[in-house]
Known about the structure:
heterodimer; A: Rossmann fold; Alpha-Beta Plaits; five-stranded parallel β-sheet; B: Four Helix Bundle (Hemerythrin (Met), subunit A); 5 helices; 82% helix; HPT_dom_sf (chain B)
Amino acid sequence: MDVLIVDDDAVTRLALSAALEEWGFVPILAENGEQALKKLEMDNAPHLLIFDWSMPGMSGPELCKTIRKREDGQFFYILMLTGKEGNEAIIEAMEAGADDFLSKPFDHRVLKVRIAAGSRIVRLEQTLNQLASRDALTQCWNRRMIDELFTNSIAESTRKRSSFSIMVLDIDHFKAVNDTYGHAAGDLALKHVVNILNTNLREYDQVGRYGGEEFVILLPATDENEAWGVAERVRSAIQFQPTVINDGAKIDLTVSIGIAQFDRSRDINQNTFFERADKALYTAKQSGRNRIICAD
Amino acid sequence: MILDPQRVQDITRNKTALIKTLAQLFLSELPDMIDSIELSLRQGDKKALSNAVHRLKSALGNFASSSYYQEVGALETRALELDATQWQTDWLTAKDKLDTLIIELKQMAGL
């Protein structure tokens, strides 16, 4: 696990860094609050943080407050180190947003167990986050998370003026699968479809289960024609790779897909955009299924 | 003894190379720390003086005995309520101890 050390003193940074490496952590170093905030903007930013209280510029408590104001919902466990002592300092640190507090000079054995406790909390939070954002059956994103990623993708596309498309995919006659083979086989079929999606999509595409057998796929930096290519790859893979259930029987599946490309002049919000793809899916279903239709 | 050898051993898990690296880093940073303290003192800038002493105290937290750490901590606090003459006297005392610490640290690190 990565640990961010924020301390203006080079000797303390080196001592902490060596100790953390010894205890199996990966230290990331910052000399002041501003550098720390930049490190926390990175992808895969550390979530376990050790701050010095007194630093030039932004102090430890100020840095805590700034981090706690973030609106992206990310959790950071903050351990504050300080030369200050007494209850007033503990209260000030905790009120600023620190989770734990250690007075300098501290016993490194105490730091070790405090860091271990912090890492357990970070891992627990990551597990909870995983449970809250993934579909339990298929392990793709759940509806809440894919909606959030959808919002972010629209914002990114607007900011970068890049193309962005979505696919709404529905398994054809899925009720018949459940009725014929049972719900356990239906679950296998859903997992099989997600597996095919993951194999055939690109690394930066995102898959979410939207409802029973309906999936939303976000395709960043993709126009309608490119989205069609991706959709056709998925559609044919599902058609020609049946689900194999426990007794060796094979379930043939097909899917219908609606595609829409984000259009700033028409799509006044996320719902409008989604509805265009959803209508295209409806048209695909109405016109015989096992096909792809692009939105008008 | 101004150095706390047990503390250095705890921090470094008694690894000779790490003791040496930490000591070298501290000794290379020390002249600048002392210059900052003495410049702030000459300029009568209480806030800068307190910050400069704080920086020294932070580094000492890795090596020094608890009593010497507290002594430097008191200098940091009293820098803000500066009685320059008394403060300077106490600083000279602290600096003498710092010289002792340097000798002890060099010995321990084999420098």
